[in-house]
Amino acid sequence: MSLIPQLHRGALSSIARLLDNYDNYLSNLNPGSDLPICAPSFDICETEDAYYFYGELPGVQSKNLYVELRDQHTLILKGQSERQSSSDVKGGVWCVLERSVGDFGRIFSFPTSVDVDGAHAHLRDGIISLIVPKGASISINKKVTIESWIGDFP
């Protein structure tokens, strides 16, 4: 799996998207890893200086997220979503529970070294923004602090 998936247009775009989703699924089946299979969706942009990640994490609080840069080539994101409603509705029986809850995770591999110390993350309205600068770093591993963000994303 490449870091940046292909953008598909045209008559075969839905089939190509299905194949990309299947590829993402298989890439998260990492034997020996403690990451779960459920994987949030991300948009990724590469510039000359950095990688920009924007991921969907509806209802997830920063206290339930863990982001780590490992070995200057690997970004690990994992966390847990919790059900945000009361399970004690008087006189009611839940008929349908469709919202996703539980553990999730993603692993991204960079083709070049990244600046582990320069990475930062923000969370607002269910969207996580991760900025990972390219370049060498003194540190090898770093847990990235997730900050709340007011205003437009960087």
UniProtKB/TrEMBL annotation:
Superkingdom of this protein's organism: Eukaryota
Keywords: Stress response
This protein's record includes keyword Transport: no
InterPro entries: A-crystallin/Hsp20_dom, HSP20-like_chaperone, Small_HSP
One protein family per Pfam: HSP20
Chain ranges of the SHSP domain: 33-149
Family named by the database record: Belongs to the small heat shock protein (HSP20) family.
Name of this chain's protein: HSP20-like chaperone
Organism annotation: Penicillium cosmopolitanum
